[in-house]
Amino acid sequence: MNYAPRQPFPVSDASPIISTAMNRSQLQLLFAGFALLVSTAVAAQADIEFDNIWIAEAPPGSQVMAAYMDIKNTGDRALQLSPPQSDDFKKIEFHRTFHENGMARMQQQSEIAIPAHETVKLEPGSYHMMLFNPARKLKAGDESTLIFQISNDNTIRITAVVKKAVFKQSGDHSDHSHH
């Protein structure tokens, strides 16, 4: 018995199915490209780690808060870190506390260098972030998202928890209300 295989569809109907198959191929290629981009970004972002992230609860009426964290560069090259942005604050700046003539003073820093394989601590009495004009009242237990643009063109979102501030050092200006 000679038997010719039957066409699964008439030739005239092939173009929509081929077109659908091409769309699937294109989507698979697009997805593979996107996955490669995401994995590259994640690998690049893996060069920096944030730990012990917190924001000091502000005293009543204060329009300035301070944030602290440990920033570790796990990569082989130094990174330049610019202040983050946040929907919760009008402006965020890096500051460094130093002592001059027996007085604690602060100086704004445009960015912070994170040397390769080192950790920079943002802590009371040293480097820290000033968070100006909160968009909402943040109290202990609240969270805020900070968005960093890293010098290697990656964006990293971190979550900072607001905590009641208990400072051990005198002169750390934890309320920053004089700014």
Task: Describe this protein's structure.
The chain is an alpha+beta fold and 179 residues long. It has two domains: 12-44; 48-163, Immunoglobulin-like. The protein contains one helix and ten strands. The strands form two sheets. Strands 1, 2, 4, 5, 7, 8, 9 and 10 form an eight-stranded mixed sheet that branches. Strands 3-6 form a two-stranded antiparallel sheet. Strand 1 (48-56) and strand 2 form a beta hairpin. The longest helix is centred in the N-terminal third of the chain and has 32 residues, at 14-45. It is globular, with a radius of gyration of 26 Å. The termini are far apart. Mean pLDDT is 79; it is low at 7-20, 30-45 and 170-179.
Annotated CATH architecture of the largest domain? Sandwich
Q: List segments where confidence is low: pLDDT < 50 over at least 5 consecutive residues.
A: 7-20, 30-45, 170-179
Distance between the termini: 95 Å
From the spread of the alpha carbons, the general shape counts as globular
Please compute the radius of gyration using only Cα atoms: 26 Å
State the major sheet: 8 strands, mixed
CATH class of the largest domain: Mainly Beta
The proportion of residues forming helix, as a percent range, comes to: 10-25%
CATH homology superfamily name of the largest domain: PCu(A)C copper chaperone
In terms of DSSP E residues, the strand content is 35-45%
Structural class: alpha+beta
Task: Give the beta-strand count.
Answer: 10
Q: What is the fold named in CATH at topology level of the largest domain?
A: Immunoglobulin-like
Number of helices: 1
Number of domains: 2
